[in-house]
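User: I'm new to structure prediction. If I give you an amino acid sequence, what do you actually give back? Let's try with this one:
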Amino acid sequence: MRRALITGVTGQDGAYLARLLLDKGYKVYGTFRRTSSPTFWRLQSLGIQERVHLIAADLADAGSLTQAIRISEPDEVYHLAAMSFVGTSFDQPVFTGDITGLGVTRLLDTIRLVNPNTKFYQASSSEMFGDGSTDLRDERSDFSPASPYAAAKLYGFWITRVYRDAFKIFAANGILFNHESPLRSLEFVTRKITNAVAMITLGVAKEVRLGNLNAMRDWGYAPEYVQAMWDIMQLETPDDFVIATGEAHSVREFADEAFSIAGLDWKKYVKIDKKLFRPLDVPSLRGDFSKAKRVFRWEPRTTFSELVKIMVEADLNRWKDALSGKVFPWDVSFSTNLDQPSNSDYTFNGLQ
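Assistant: Good question. You get back a string of structure tokens that encode the predicted 3D arrangement of the chain. For your 352 residues, that looks like this:
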């Protein structure tokens, strides 16, 4: 039985990847940050929490990473954990650099010292490109990070290549463009919009506040992207791959599509809030997945419209179940006053 360690297993990608690996017969270990309040609702909603062996670890603590590697004895390590909110990285740049950047080095060096035959996957990000060009980005495109998060991810990308070349570790980068699902955190603009559509449709909220509606992103479906992670790790030679759809859509388009599914006009409910704009934003990101298609035959299957519909319907069903009194794994706080929906709005500090 093959063994895998997933850092950040409680996140969107971690949960979907854990399910995929379990279905393939792996013994799956996953880390969660011991100094935070862990949330296991994603693993619970997929019905796999009891099948994942959880290990408390912290990317700032090399000792805890060593312990996680020794406990799990993995054939494959999927490094998904990070400080992953672009907007927050401007408020916490040093923390972001330490966790999202140097955390990669700590984990790679642990692998080098404990078992250099372990395969390593680094979750790199399209935000590393960052100059706002509308051109398709591929593995040969120049990087130009526009946030502390992107700069930290770029460090992680390059240190992965350094360990691959210097120490002959199987270390690969997946440069994933935005990928969403019903398991996405509420801090991200896609889930913020779909959850707001559900709340407004059911009379729980009156409006949703958003930032830059013109920002364009290449949005795919997360379960398909974790399949690409596994495909990358099955190659004989480690390499770097862009995973994307090749299409870009604006936040405005996402909002229009989401509200239309519920039969609503987004213009009546979306309010622009300047406080939600980033200090430095990337106007557009769009990826070229042709190398992944050529090497291991990966390509996206879920369209933009299908993705939005999946997310809207999931949030509508959750809110209907919650309002009927059902108890289930979910991430929405019930701080909203459900008895007075006419006075409610929806103002999570979402990110583009």
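You can read the tokens as a compact description of the fold. Here is one thing that stands out. The chain has two domains: 3-179+220-243, 185-218+249-283+304-343.
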